[in-house]
UniProtKB/TrEMBL annotation:
<dbReference type="GO" id="GO:0006108">
    <property type="term" value="P:malate metabolic process"/>
</dbReference>
<dbReference type="GO" id="GO:0006099">
    <property type="term" value="P:tricarboxylic acid cycle"/>
</dbReference>
<dbReference type="Pfam" id="PF00056">
    <property type="entry name" value="Ldh_1_N"/>
</dbReference>
<feature type="binding site">
    <location>
        <position position="105"/>
    </location>
    <ligand>
        <name>NAD(+)</name>
    </ligand>
</feature>
<feature type="binding site">
    <location>
        <begin position="129"/>
        <end position="131"/>
    </location>
    <ligand>
        <name>NAD(+)</name>
    </ligand>
</feature>
<feature type="domain" description="Lactate/malate dehydrogenase N-terminal">
    <location>
        <begin position="6"/>
        <end position="152"/>
    </location>
</feature>
<dbReference type="InterPro" id="IPR022383">
    <property type="entry name" value="Lactate/malate_DH_C"/>
</dbReference>
<keyword id="KW-0816">Tricarboxylic acid cycle</keyword>
<feature type="binding site">
    <location>
        <position position="98"/>
    </location>
    <ligand>
        <name>substrate</name>
    </ligand>
</feature>
<dbReference type="InterPro" id="IPR036291">
    <property type="entry name" value="NAD(P)-bd_dom_sf"/>
</dbReference>
<dbReference type="InterPro" id="IPR011274">
    <property type="entry name" value="Malate_DH_NAD-dep_euk"/>
</dbReference>
<dbReference type="InterPro" id="IPR001236">
    <property type="entry name" value="Lactate/malate_DH_N"/>
</dbReference>
<dbReference type="InterPro" id="IPR001557">
    <property type="entry name" value="L-lactate/malate_DH"/>
</dbReference>
<feature type="binding site">
    <location>
        <position position="162"/>
    </location>
    <ligand>
        <name>substrate</name>
    </ligand>
</feature>
<dbReference type="InterPro" id="IPR010945">
    <property type="entry name" value="Malate_DH_type2"/>
</dbReference>
<feature type="binding site">
    <location>
        <position position="131"/>
    </location>
    <ligand>
        <name>substrate</name>
    </ligand>
</feature>
<feature type="binding site">
    <location>
        <position position="42"/>
    </location>
    <ligand>
        <name>NAD(+)</name>
    </ligand>
</feature>
Length: 332
């Protein structure tokens, strides 16, 4: 058996972590042969709650889970980790946009960037879930200059999963038959959920979703806005932000990053932009990617029409504004 892998989850006493820890610890992310040591970080007032989570992890009796390290000390949390799920941050409430959380959350990601830089493995793979995820990931990377920028990503997989679920419901097919829906840009209401490359695989055939759903109004209005606003719809109903589906998406993201994407399949993740598709450089922008040998690569050369370009411009502009605001908050 392999040596245990050290994995940190921040916000470990919170809602998302409560679902995520079990998914990780039972081997669904890093593989069924990969023993794990889980580092659980939260803030001092949450240590009693965290102790309960630690008890429950023990009571799950999971063979791959070799040790659990609960802590409120970022040094302990980040030392020697190979994977980091940065979940710990304040969630938004009804009526807020995710960028309204910048003032409350962005400094967390500066501190954690610095700690990752000093104590984590240099090839650590970092997934930022805490909102606003793209800009928090950018700030985290900025404060971890000795770790490659490619190792900092933001979660838009939940939006991709939502998009594929909407398409499956419209077509009345199982969601597992739908793939390659793309999320461009920010994990915010300016994101561009794009069905242009999505496909349905059934009975050995692969069909483009846009060939089956010849209803442009549904694709450009109903589908698009329902995915953009799904997070707010969950908050309105639950009075708390999505947690189970966010945990599942975080697991999907990290699993594909560690173990690779299936040939022919595209996934979406927020990664450092190199300006592909005329997007602004040096923001964490969600692109279609494929992953091989632990390295993501933006899928280039997709046909992007005028409508799509205008959507990419809008979400790119918001990311530039968020970057500016985040830097102001940090320097204040
Ligand atoms: P929650 O309030 O239930 O849990 C957050 C936890 O983080 C709390 O236990 C809190 O004490 C902890 N925390 C706060 N500051 C911390 C710090 N400096 N270090 C370590 N832990 C810290 O919230 P949740 O529902 O788990 O959501 C967490 C974040 O994830 C929110 O910002 C939410 O908006 C975001 N989110 C993102 C996505 C996405 O798709 N990217 C999806 C869902 C939620
Ligand atoms: C989501 O998309 O569900 C999360 O980002 C939580 C939110 O604030 O919408």
């Amino acid at each position: 058996m392999a040596e245990p892998l050290r994995v940190v989850v921040t916000g470990a006493a919170g809602q998302i972590a409560y679902s995520l820890l079990y998914i990780i610890a039972k081997g669904d992310v890093f593989g069924k042969d990969q023993p794990l040591i889980l580092h659980l970080l939260d803030i001092p007032v949450m240590m009693d709650v965290l102790e309960g989570v630690v008890m429950e992890l023990a009571d799950c009796a999971l063979p791959l889970l070799r040790d659990v390290v609960p802590t409120d000390d970022p040094i302990v949390a980040f030392t020697d980790v190979s994977a980091a799920f940065l979940v710990g941050a304040m969630p938004r409430k009804q009526g807020m946009e995710r960028k309204d959380l910048l003032a409350a959350n962005v400094k967390i990601f500066k501190v954690q960037g610095e700690a990752l830089d000093k104590y984590a493995k240099k090839d650590v793979k970092v997934l930022v879930v805490g909102n606003p995820a793209n800009t928090n990931a950018l700030i985290c990377s900025k404060y971890a200059p000795t770790i490659p920028k490619e190792n900092f990503t933001a979660m838009t997989r939940l939006d991709q999963n939502r998009a594929q679920a909407q398409i499956a419901a419209k077509l009345k097919v199982p969601v597992g038959m739908v793939s390659n829906a793309v999320i461009w840009g920010n994990h915010s209401s300016t994101q561009y959920p794009d069905a242009s490359y999505a496909v349905v695989e059934r009975n050995g055939t692969v069909e483009k979703v846009t060939d089956i759903i010849a209803d442009e109004k549904w694709i450009r209005e109903t589908f698009l806005t329902s995915v953009q606003k799904r997070g707010a719809a969950v908050i309105a109903a639950r009075k708390m932000s999505s947690a189970m589906s966010a945990a599942k998406a975080a697991a999907d993201h990290m699993k594909d990053w560690f173990l690779g994407t299936t040939p022919g399949k595209i996934i979406s993740m927020g990664v450092i932009s190199n300006g592909a598709y005329n997007t602004p450089k040096d923001v964490i922008f969600s692109f279609p990617v494929i992953i091989e040998d632990g390295k993501w690569k933006i899928v280039e050369g997709l046909l992007v029409d005028e409508f799509s370009h205008s959507m990419l411009d809008a979400t790119g502009k918001e990311l530039l504004e968020e970057r500016e605001e985040a830097l102001k908050i940090i320097q204040a």
